[in-house]
Amino acid sequence: MNIALLLPGQGTRFTEQVKELWLESPEARGLIETAERQLGYPVSEWLTSDLSKDTHKAQLATYVGSMCMYQLYKQQIGLYPSYVLGHSLGELTALTIAGAVSYEEGLQLVDIRGKAMKAAIEQQESLGMMAVFAAPEQVEALAAGWDEVYAANLNSEQQTVISGTRQAIQEFVKHHQLEGVMLGVNGAFHTPYMKEAAEQVYEQLGGLSFSTRLQTQVISNKSAELYNFTNIREEIAAQMVSPVRWKPSVDYALSQGVQLFVDLSPNGMFVKMFKSPDGVFAFHSEETIGLLRTELKDDIEVNRHYDVFSRALGIIVSTKNNGTDAEAYDNIVMSGYNRIKSQIGKEASPEDIKQTLSLLELILSTKEVPADEIAEYCNRLAWKIG
Length: 386
Description:
By secondary structure, the chain is of the alpha/beta class. Helices cover 53% and strands 11% of the residues. It is built from 18 helices and nine strands. A five-stranded parallel beta sheet has the order 7-2-1-8-9, sandwiched between helices. It has a four-stranded antiparallel beta sheet with strand order 4-5-3-6. The longest helix is centred in the first third of the chain and has 22 residues, at 55-76. The radius of gyration is 22 Å and the shape is elongated. InterPro entries: Ac_transferase_dom_sf (IPR001227), Acyl_transferase_dom (IPR014043), Acyl_Trfase/lysoPLipase (IPR016035), Mal-CoA-ACP_Trans/PKS_FabD (IPR050858), Malonyl_transacylase_ACP-bd (IPR016036). It is an enzyme of class 2 (transferase).
C-alpha cells in the first residue's frame, strides 16, 4: 500500500482524549518529556490550551503533539509512508519524520521559527487571516490585483485562506461577494509580511545541521513537488513567505501513486477539508484508529511477521545482480546473505540493526544496484525498525 501522512499546522488544538492516547505510550510520553527538559517550557500544559494568541507556544505545541501522533501511528499501524506532507508548520514535522533533522533539532528549529514570527506579529498591527469558501485559482486571480491581501493557503477546491490587513480582507470579500470566516490568529502568515521573520530564521539556522539522506520523501508546500534539499535552510525560510500550495501538493502525491492518506491532525481536519473522504483516514481516536486498522488489516498482518533480518534478506533476493565479479559475489553477497540469515529469530539489538543496514548496503553495491535504489531500500528498512 502506497501511503502518505498528512501533518497539521499551527492552530491545532489537541483534546485531553488524544493526549491520554499518547500518555499510554512510553515513546510518545518521552517526546513530551524531552521537549520540556530541552526547552524548559511546560509543553504538556500547552498541548491542550488555547494558544491562538501566542504563535510561539502554538507552534511548539503543534510540533510536539504531531510527533506524538506520528509515534502512535508507528505503533498502531507501522506501515511505511512513501510520502509525508506537512501543512505550513507541519512541514517541519514532515522533515523530522523524514530524517532531515532529529527530533531535538526540530524542537530547536520550531522554537526559532515561532519566536521570530511572534516578534514580527508584535511589530505589526491589525493583521489576520480568513478562510474563504472559494477555489484557489479564483481567489489567487482576484488577490493579484488587490493591495494588502494575499492568497496564503491553497487548501482545497472549496477553501482558500487569505492573509493581510484585517480591513483589506474585509473589503476584499465584500467587494467580490465571497463568504469566509476569520481565523483565530493575529498575523498574516505566508505573505511578504513575514519577510523579516524569514530572514531572522535563515540567519539563526546557520548553526543547525541537516541530513539529505531521507527515510521517506517530503512534498514541499512551496513547490508542490519533492522537497528541494540542496539548501534546506533557504527552503525553510522561503516557505514562511510563500503560499501553502496544499491542494497541488496532495494532487502531486496522487500523481505519484499514493493510494491512502492518513490524517494525523487531532480532529480529522484534512478529512473535513477535502469533503471527499475516500482514501483519507482520520487518526485521532480509538474509533478512527480502529477503522484504519480494519482498512489496512492485510498489510498490517504481513508487516507484523517480518523482522529486520527477514526484511534485509527479502531485499537481497529481490534485487537483480548486475555485477560481473564472481569472486566478490561469493565473498560479499553470499557470505553476507548467510550471515544475516543466521540471525533470523533473535532479538535485534541497536548494534545488530546498524550492522545489518551497513551489510545490506555493501551487498547491494556489490550487486551494482543503482545508488538511488540502494538508498531507498536502506531508508525504508531504517524507517521500519527505527
